Amino acid sequence: MDIKIIAPINSAKEVKEIIKAGASELYCGILPRNWLKKYTNIASPNRRDWRAANLTCYSELKEVVDIAHSYQVPVCLTLNAFYTQSQYPLAYEQVEYARKVGIDALIIADIGILLELKRRNIDIDTHVSTGGTTFNSQTARFYEEFGVSRIILPRHLQMREIKEIVTDCPSLKFEVFVLNSGCKNIDGFCTFQHGVNEILHPYLWNWFKKLNADRYLLEAIRRLPKKIVQTLKINIFGIDSACLLNYKVSLASDNKLEKETLLMCKDIAKNYNLLSGVDPCGACDLYQFKQIGMYAVKIVGRNYSTSKKVKDVLFLNRALSYLRENLHIEEDDFREWTKFEFKKIYKMNCRELCYRFN
């Protein structure tokens, strides 16, 4: 079975183009006016805190579903935040609207939502978000008891861990992130506040996001020589989250540490900054994902431009087609082909900003 490509959207206008590029499935979030008025964008219902990353109304959600279904492409709705008691009613409201417009699945992290769906016997497919922190097969089987059919594995898992989980849970489907938006933190444990600048500087910040200015900045950084990127420390007005600040990391004690631990501390100090999430890539891992039976790979970046999303889908689609047409290719040869294709599509060299180093 071919690996599915799951692509993000933030507008009904881009659905056709992304599907025609080769997306097997779409996912989106919605930040409706009643939620914004009560909780602001900082407490987003779907872990994307900018309006530029979300649909704004249920009528647009219906339009997205109708267009995608006309191409036989399913759509998933992200409801993958962790909610306070007062927020549950509005979260359930999104569930009900999602069912009415024909959403194919919900992406969920909050166990309270999973419990309530089971209690109400609501018949809708559910997937566990990376925020659900599935670190091992025991956790996967725990979620399966809620009727979950698919699990999105956390970014930081290495290939051997992924393989073990997928092998131990044959009745579940799994997907992994493969392009964009890396993070040194574990999603489900993150308590940083994002989206603050959309409140402090609403007009400037929304203009900045809608023009994809942050996207162009990151692309410019990627084109710099590697030595400069490694040493560059950028402080830009409008940093949107505390996790993007430059942190000094020190040891808690003077005890002698192994060389590996010292290197890890040095790596943390160097990489917790604005450059730490510069669009990593896991396309080379498609070779192993295919071997272990991965169901799908997910592209991150709901707030990215349509052209960027289309490029990402085309890149992965070509890589999977190449694997399908060259069944006996060696992994090293596939990696070299992938780097060549990366340069052809993105007009820059592969910088080996990989999701996983195994």
Mean pLDDT: 86
Helix content: 40-55%
Can you tell me the CATH class of the largest domain? Answer: Alpha Beta
What is the strand tally?
8
Please tell me about this protein's structure.
- By secondary structure, the chain is an alpha/beta fold.
- The protein has 2 domains: 258 residues, Aldolase class I (TIM Barrel, Alpha-Beta Barrel), CATH 3.20.20.70; 64 residues, no CATH class.
- 43% of the residues lie in helices and 10% in strands.
Give me the secondary-structure topology.
Blueprint: E1 4-8, H1 15-21, E2 25-28, H2 33-39, H3 58-70, E3 75-79, H4 88-101, E4 105-108, H5 111-119, E5 125-128, H6 137-144, E6 150-152, H7 159-168, E7 173-179, H8 196-200, H9 202-210, H10 213-222, H11 226-231, H12 259-271, H13 286-292, E8 296-299, H14 306-325, H15 331-346
Helix pairs in contact: 14-15
Pick out its properties.
358 residues, alpha/beta, TIM Barrel, 15 helices, globular
Summarize the structure.
By secondary structure, the chain is an alpha/beta fold. Helices cover 43% and strands 10% of the residues. The mean pLDDT is 86.
